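P.,

For your records, the input lines for the assembly:
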Amino acid sequence: MPISGFPEWMPPQRMIEQRVIDRARATFELYGYAPLETRSVEPIETLLSKGETSKEVYLLSRLQAEKAEEGQLGLHFDLTVPFARFVTENAGKLQFPFKRYQIQKVWRGERPQEGRYREFLQADIDVVNRGTLPFHYDTEMPLVIGDVLSGLPVPRARIQVNNRKVCEGFYRGLGLAQTDEVLRIIDKLDKIGPNAVKEQLVAKVGATEAQADTCLALADISSEDGSFVDAVRKLGVSDPLLDEGLEELLRVVETARDHAPGLVVAELKIARGLDYYTGTVYETQLEGYERFGSICSGGRYDNLATVGNESFPGVGISIGVSRMLGILFGQQALAVSRSVPTCVVVALPHEELRADCDRTAGALRRRGIPAEVAPTAAKFGKQIQYADKRGIPYVWFPGRDGEPDTVKDIRSGEQVEADAAAWEPPAADLHPVISGS
RNA sequence: GUGGUCGUAGCUCAGCUGGUAGAGCACCGGGUUGUGGUCCCGGGGGUCGCGGGUUCGAGUCCCGUCGAUCACCCCA
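Structure tokens returned:
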């Protein structure tokens, strides 16, 4: 019986997921991020310490617990909060700036939907420093993600970037003090439309119609180059924080333009990740899958981790692996060339010959070729079907009476003499191939 | 967590106003004592998500529950 929100995928899908994990890991390491795994549980105080009360946290309890135990534990709902805790706890042993990646499951008790689960996998990178963190790390995040995704057969990714300093500074310069509330209302723009947003701005934060219109004008700005800066300036609002934010956002956009044209777009209505983000925020959509929302997001957090009066600012971004794959699987947008890793099935003429066939399979494996011996000495037709149903490309036939062995490509039907100590399949056939559509 | 829609064989679905289940594909066997995918013949398989209620009788009506999905919330 399935449990809502806790998906269990079949081997082909798991193979695809593992390929994504491999790609993420390899790319993260290319950029110098070090591997880390933190425990699955944190004290609830840690999980809720940054105003994350809205997140549905799963609590952990023992079956034999007498009553409510002190020091209640909860499963982590992201990888950033546990990481911040880890950094403060181990600050003395780490070298800063500290770059690490974590690919782990996280849990949230929200209502499941397609691409939204209660247990899901995230692939996360973060950089944390002591005191202050250089801004160029904010520009690196989208590049790493672009690198991961461009190496996978998934639709093109579009990373939307904004900077909370721009919004906050703008609203403040405009004379609206409740910047958080304004942000929250603006964030609903796509859902409730400009008119409703305007009404709420007037009603909830006491904005004048002109102020509300100006906020909407800001949210409307979007560009793949630095032209958004002028567009903002034209709105005639000035504030030091706004200037700072614009400069930062410009650096992210220009760096991306230089290294990966088309990957990043400045989108001034992006406001999510309100919780602990203080500057840059990222959100990612796959082309053609915009309606499913973001599959990768993150941002800059300057105040998440502190020890005494020392702070550890950071910036990070996280790929929702389960979310992305769940969405693509749902649209049949990903496929794998076979349902098992096996490249060669060694046919078994008689059960007495199993030992010989095992040796043949062993010779193939020793050279890195995934091979298995047929389950029973059924008719060869059945043994070929065994391979065919699984998408296994080759069947190996032991030669009789001293005749040489042969190997058959069951897709083409071509069958040639072969030596298990030397034969190699084409590189493309060695392992299952993931493809998109 | 709130609300809506949906839930019949492995898959896609049919089953009129309630009278105790069907098709195609898939699967298994045979035709083809051993190199498959075509074709022909035959076969297995469903407590109609689960539980309760109304009724002489429920897949078909009502309630609950579980699951999927959509919107809200929130976010990967």
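Two observations worth noting. The first strand of chain A starts at residue 34 and ends at 35. Chain A has a mean pLDDT of 93.

Regards
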